Amino acid sequence: SDSKIYSALNSTHTGVVKPVHSFGSESDGAVNWEFMHAGYGWARITSITSGTVASATVISRIPSDAVGSGNATTRWSFSDWSSVEGWPSSVAFFRERLCFARGQNIWMSVAAAFDDFSARNDSGEITDDMAISLEVASGELNAIQWLHADRMLVAGTAGGEFSIGELTNGDPLGPGNVKAEIVSGYGSRGVQPVRSGDRSLFVMPSGRKVREIGFDFSQDGYQSKDVTVLSDHITDGGIVDMDFAVEPYSVVWCVRADGVLLGFTWNNEEQVQGWHRHLLGGSSGVNSTDVPWGVVESVAVIPRPNGRGDQVWMSVRRGRPDGWPVAPTREVVYMEDPFIEENNGYPVPIPTASDQFYVDSGSTHNPGGTVVTGLSRLNGQTVAVLADGAPHPDCLVSGGSITLQSSAQWVQVGLRYSSILKPMRIEAGAADGTAQGKTKRIHKVVFRLVSSSIFRYGSRPDNLLTMEFRTAADKMGRAVPLYTGDKLVDWPGDYETDGYIYIESDSPTALGIAGIFPQIVTQDSR
Known about the structure:
Layout lengths: L4 E4 L16 E3 L4 E6 L4 E7 L5 E7 L29 E5 L2 E6 L2 E4 L23 E4 L8 E6 L3 E5 L3 E5 L13 E6 L9 E3 L2 E5 L6 E7 L4 E6 L12 E7 L5 E6 L4 E7 L4 E7 L16 E9 L6 E9 L10 E6 L25 E6 L3 E4 L9 E6 L2 E7 L5 E7 L2 E5 L3 E3 L18 E13 L2 E4 L5 E4 L15 E8 L11 E4 L6 E11 L4
Antiparallel strand pairs: 1-3, 2-3, 4-5, 6-7, 7-8, 8-9, 10-11, 11-12, 12-13, 14-15, 15-16, 16-17, 18-19, 19-20, 20-21, 22-23, 23-24, 25-30, 26-29, 27-28, 27-30, 31-36, 32-35, 32-37, 33-34, 33-36
């Protein structure tokens, strides 16, 4: 019953004011009326004696006609969440409500009361700010994989995506004004979406397709597109986790099922999108006897402590999965700030060449001599070393330390990794149309560099030349100053139909390529 039950305290003659309170006592002008219950109550079961007997702690008074051995009732309902019914598997905040989901059901808390999921108030009334409970019904039984707050609350299921919002725009969202409607039928994996501006990314059930979804006012609905269409090979194996670092480069960081770290540069304002793969330092396969084998297990993005953008954190497992020759270990690591020589107006010391940090599982040391200690985690590993801004020959870690060839003040030590850039085939045009498939030759290339050091370049990985920056004016035994500007080089390639440009660096130094400008001749077909 939704009727409120009151008890007269001190008179048999009533007044003219109808009691409407939901707790305590109030007078109707002649009689004080005490609120007893709203026609129902609830309790928390603490123990069960038999199929019909249980002990419980009363939380809200239960009506007297449902209490006692002579008033047995079957009008009981159990909580939606329990070890028997199950617990929520997805969560989000939306319109000042805490929202949970499990299966096809969604629960939204009372507005601005995140720990209250009451469907009505103590007086039995249902108001617009009360909790909401609804089922996302469709033609298939698909469990909700995630909740995502957007213009509407978007729920991704295994078979499609649904928006939850007001039934009529003139009234606020509430128990009597809520609807769920399908917005796309692609289906989702249990990977939390990420958002940039008015667009969001979600992963499809296979984990290989990532779609961008957003509200289109011209269509008055949500529209979706595949952002892996030009690089569908890079997600082979499926994405299992992702997060978005807005600053400094707007990259969605993804973890593939095999532990490879992927990045998706996502800048819709500048119409820049592109996928890239990141292999950690160490060996890259389970058949190698080298240790460690760097496998990313999860990724998260948090603000940097210095307030300068976002910081990417990862859980990394190193070592062969089968435990040979040593048992796997786990590290929690984060990406270091990109190296920029200028301070750009920030009230911090101007970075120097010794601040470059381009090693994996690395650390910074101030040995004040030739022995660097504190490297026990890298015992038995050959590590890359940057000593006072200059690359140092690789060292073998033994007993948690390495010995340098000469003393250094600041040293970066970690696992070496390779950075590879291979743009797509060049489209230079031709007198009779496209340059694709035609014989061509790149004879010169201009590299526009920012704070850069040594790297290799060429038309294929087995025939690379080294870009050197040391000049006769540079003092020996000192780090070569980083270079910013244009470098013109004669290209080592020959006549071919592809016209690839290949750049590689495994040095623990910075390399910033702002542009590649080839001079190319294309032979027209006859």
